[in-house]
Amino acid sequence: MSPKLDHLLAKLNQQPLDRDLGGITVEISEQLSERAKIDGQTWRLRTAAMALLVMGGAAVSASTASAVAPSPSPFAAWSSLAPSTLLEPSE
After folding, report:
1. Rounded Cα–Cα distance for residues 1 and 13 (Å)
2. Considering the entire predicted model, what is its pTM?
3. 74 with 82: CB under 8 angstroms?
4. What is the CB neighbour count within 10 angstroms for residue 26?
5. pLDDT for 42-76, tens place per residue?
6. Percentage of the chain lying above the pLDDT 90 cut
7. In this predicted structure, what is the pLDDT of residue 8?
8. Dihedral angle computed from the Cα positions of residues 70, 73, 75 and 79, in that order, rounded to the nearest 10 degrees
9. Nearest CA among 86, 64, 63 for reference residue 75
10. How far apart are CA 72 and CA 78, in angstroms?
11. HEC readout, the chain
12. pLDDT surpasses 80 at 87
């Protein structure tokens, strides 16, 4: 380090503390617990909003799927007129 910085750090070390550090652990613990409460509430709110969005999407998807009937096509895989079903012998 530079001599000027060493001199400043030595001078700072000689000065008394501006407050007692005995209770700082309690203050930090209280602040961390308050932040944890806020973070927990935020995540619960986000989870509830996501659940509502998923349920709403499922409801809309189910209602539109039942409202739209597939049009019959001889080329559809599920069709009884599909070429693959016409070539198979009937049982």
Report:
1. 16
2. 0.42
3. yes
4. 9
5. 989 999 999 999 999 988 887 776 666 666 666 66
6. 30
7. 94
8. 70
9. 86
10. 9
11. CCHHHHHHHHHHHHCCCCCCCCCHHHHHHHHHHHHHHHHHHHHHHHHHHHHHHHHHHHHHHHHHHHHCCCCCCCCCCCCCCCHHHHHCCCC
12. no
12 or 18, which is more confident? 12
Q: Which residue has the tokens 């989870």?
A: 47
Name the residue with tokens 């539109």: 64
Structure tokens at 90: 């009937």
Radius of gyration of the chain (CA): 36
Q: What tokens were used for 45?
A: 């709110």
Q: How far is CA 10 from the centre of its chain?
A: 48
Q: Token pair of 43, please?
A: 């995540």
Q: What is the pLDDT of residue 19?
A: 75
